[in-house]
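Pipeline run #58 for the internal structure catalog. This entry was flagged by the ingest filter as a single-chain record with no existing model, so it goes straight to prediction. Upstream metadata was stripped on purpose; only the residue string is passed forward. Reviewer on rotation: M.T. Logging verbosity set to normal.
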Amino acid sequence: MRLNLNHHRPLAQRIVMRYQLQSLSKDDVYACIEHHLKLCGARMPIFTASVLEAISLCSQEWPRVINTLTINSLLYGAQQKKEQIDEEIVQMAIEECGL
């Protein structure tokens, strides 16, 4: 919408493709996180079911927010030398994101 303003016209003319992402379903959120962990070489579950639920709810199932929460959770977990991410760590990540 903002690109339609006159002072953004040069930028709007350079955009070749426009795409709007939709939020994921809860099952897709779980599958996405598990898929990324497998690609990274995880051999055991790192996030508990309640943590996955918290990430799904707090992110409102938006892919960028999911990625930010999971990465921050993994960083906090590594700092605390945890083998599995628990609710306390995810809460720290949620607060960091301002959600």
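catalog note: The longest helix spans residues 63-79.
catalog note: The chain is about 60% helix and 0% strand.
status: ready for reviewer M.T.
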